[in-house]
Structure formats: C-alpha cells, structure tokens
Amino acid sequence: MLKKTLHILFLPCSEATLLMEKQNAQTISSKENRKLRMHLFICKWCKAYNEKLKLLDQIFKKTLTQKNAEINEAEIQDFKDKMIEKLNF
Length: 89
Hints:
Structural class: mainly alpha
Helix content: over 70%
Order of helices and strands: HHHH
C-alpha cells in the first residue's frame, strides 16, 4: 500500500518512462534524475524497462559502429582497387 502511494505521489510510470527516454537521448536535470531514481527504487516494472532500454541502446550503438566500420573498409578497398588500376596503366 505504501509503495503504491509513494509511486503515485512522486512520479507515475508514464512520466518515469518519458524521463528514461529523455535520459537516454540527453542529460536530465538533477531534480528529474532524483525523481527517476526514487521511482526506479519503488517500481520493479520501470526498473526492468530501464534495463532493457539501456541494453537496446548499447546494441544499437554497437551495430551503428560496426556499420560505419564496414563502410570505411569498403571505401578503403575501393580506393586500393582504383590505385591498382592506375598503376597498371
């Protein structure tokens, strides 16, 4: 009962998820951070959501980095091929 009351008084889940998304995209104020930490301490569902959100963000960043590396390798190979063609003439 106490957890539900604190949950409603401090920060509802809908606002907590918005803060999590905002925190993922940019920095949040210390007041928002404090409210979010309090909510995550109380709400196991939002805590699980936040962990999944962080995991997805890590996977996305890793994939994006790998894609950029593949593009760079392809560009380097293309450059090498062009140089070999010019040297053969």
